[in-house]
Amino acid sequence: LLMPIADLTPQRKPWYGLLKWLALITVGVSAIAIFAAHRMVQPLMLLENAVESVGPDAILPLLPEKGPAEVRATARALNSLSSRLRSAIESRMRLLAAAGHDLRTPITRMRLRAEFVEDEEERRLWLTDLDELERIADSANVFARGGVGLWLARGRETGQAIGFCGFLELGEPS
């Protein structure tokens, strides 16, 4: 029972097979890691896009509360913040509209009194000041009705946007 053993020559470099398997495992693990990282970052990108989409009216769109626990908590907090901010802005807009409206009666009374001022120069100064007050009241009403966008558009059309603490010049007054 003797069998001849064939002359088996050892492989030249036994590491090639091992390196091939290591490369295959590395590629597979990297693909899985990239996929998992993308899935984890996707809700954060949603949050980033939502925060970037805040317009001049400072209203944040409602965010879906999905993803990892931290992202859901952040989305919930941002939704709550947006709701409170919207409520505060609406309250201030109502106050601003009421103030602009309530200024109309005294301005009208003062305009009638100014018409009866004897001195022509003094009357002109009174009427100029009343026109300025009326533009401020109009600006407050436009701002309250349409928000910042309409207010700035009106300011560009007329050459000036009337601020509540003064005037912001946007160009030559018309």
Q: Provide the gyration radius in Å.
A: 36 Å
Instruction: Give the overall form.
Output: rod-shaped
Q: What is the element string, with H for helices and E for strands?
A: HHHHEE
The major beta sheet can be summarized as: 2 strands, antiparallel
Kindly estimate the percentage of residues that lie in beta strands according to DSSP: under 5%
How far apart are the first and last residues' alpha carbons, in Å?
A: 117 Å
Give the proportion of residues in helices: over 70%
The computed structural class is mainly alpha
Model description:
The chain is mainly alpha-helical. 71% of the residues lie in helices and 3% in strands. The protein contains four helices and two strands, in the order ααααββ. It has a two-stranded antiparallel ribbon with strand order 1-2. α2 (69-102) runs antiparallel to α4 (120-158) and α3 packs antiparallel against α4. The radius of gyration is 36 Å and the shape is rod-shaped. Residues 159-174 have low confidence and may be disordered.
